[in-house]
Amino acid sequence: MSELRTEDFDFHLPEELIASRPAEKRDASRMLVINRAEQSITHTHFKEIKSYLAPEDLLVLNNTRVVKARYFSDDGKIELVRVAKESSTLWRCMVRPGKKMKVGREVIVGGIRGIVQEIDEEGYRVIQWDAVINEEESGQLALPHYMQREAEEADFERYQTVFAQEEGAIAAPTAGLHFTPELLAELNHTFLTLHVGVGTFRPVKAEMVKDHDMHGEMYHVSPESAEKINQARRVVAVGTTVSRTLEHLGSHYPKGALTSESGKTDIFIYPPYQPKIVDALLTNFHLPQSTLMMLVSAFAGRDLVMEAYAQAIAEKYRFYSYGDCMLIV
Predict the structure, then answer these.
(1) Region 254-261 average pLDDT
(2) Of residues 158, 171, 146, the one with CA closest to residue 25
(3) Residues 192/221, Cβ–Cβ less than 8 Å
(4) What phi, psi does 113 have (nearest 5°)?
(5) Which ranges constitute the DSSP H helices of the chain?
């Protein structure tokens, strides 16, 4: 295969297919199924997912919980998205407009004064606050920019999986948004945690895919989950975040030998790639030229994925975080 370019993962999406709000019911999504062995594409609904799974298959889901990471200065002139909390009063933030937030600059959020201590190599501002900010009162969900709207009351429930537990994500692990408690109870499953960071929205600026500098995200796998994954006949990753965690671990441990672990992964998965742990993948539809498109293409092949996306567009599937889903088996 010749070296892939970022533009090889481009496609045109009509704006009306971007799901800016969730479906009425979580499990009402449509589901496109890619069968790799048959090189086939099938159109069905998420409620039918059990028919594609064997009882002994193991779903692995990401139980991270989305936090209120978006803040505005009291004068409304500065927007901050917290990308890391070094302590309760020391935050690392993405800011807009950046030119106003030089080292030493003061900003006030919820009546609390903060001072920019430094600008790191990624352009994030390290801000020291005089006191702890009331995040419930001052914070908002950082909805993806393509929704082109502010977070509403309904988002505090719907932009969160029903199994969300471990606080720390900026964005939701969106493949998990389709599950209801009732459906999950019928499926063999376990959890891991990967806190989705702002890097998941970072565009690929490199012309050649291999030259992209991948962001890192923190993960944790419990002893119980590691044991279940080791014993599974087939591992079904729910989402790209789960895939990245498992494949990161798979590059360190042979299949069947995972152990409990916490750490940071910056694994970048793109074609050609041979999965080490993940046998099947449930995922949403992703932005063109994104690292997530590249990951999905690594699992199913670029040509088949591009054909699947073309069919999804023709069939008017709903795209992105609140949209429909794809199952790769």
Answers:
(1) 92
(2) 158
(3) yes
(4) -85, 135
(5) 135-138, 155-158, 181-185, 223-231, 240-250, 291-300, 302-314
Q: Are 154 and 141 within 8 A, CB to CB? A: no
- Sign of the alpha-carbon dihedral angle for 245, 285, 231, 268: negative
Domain locations along the chain? 6-66+145-328, 70-138
pLDDT higher than 70, residue 305: yes
3-class state of residue 54 by DSSP:
coil
Residues 6 or more apart in contact with residue 81 via CB below 8 angstroms? 69, 70, 71, 93, 94, 95, 142, 170, 198
Q: What is the CATH number of domain 70-138?
A: 2.40.10.240
Whether 9 has a pLDDT exceeding 60, the answer reads yes
Could you tell me the two tokens for 41? 């594409």
Cα–Cα dist 216/34, whole Å: 29
What's the average model confidence in pLDDT over 85-91? 96
Residue pair 305/34 in contact by the 8 Å Cβ criterion: yes
27 within 8 A of 157, measured Cβ to Cβ: no
Stretch (H or E) spanning 282: strand 280-284
As assigned by CATH, the class of the 6-66+145-328 domain is: alpha beta
pLDDT over 70, % of the chain: 99
Q: With bands split at pLDDT 50, 70 and 90, how would you rate the model's confidence at 2? A: low
For the chain, the maximum distance between any two Cα atoms, rounded to a whole number of angstroms, is 60
- What pLDDT score was predicted for residue 203? 86
Query: Whose CA is closest to 246, among 35, 84, 61?
Result: 61
pLDDT tens sequence across 170-229? 999 999 999 999 999 999 999 999 999 877 777 899 999 999 989 889 999 999 999 999
Q: Residue 102 and residue 81: Cα distance in Å, rounded?
A: 16
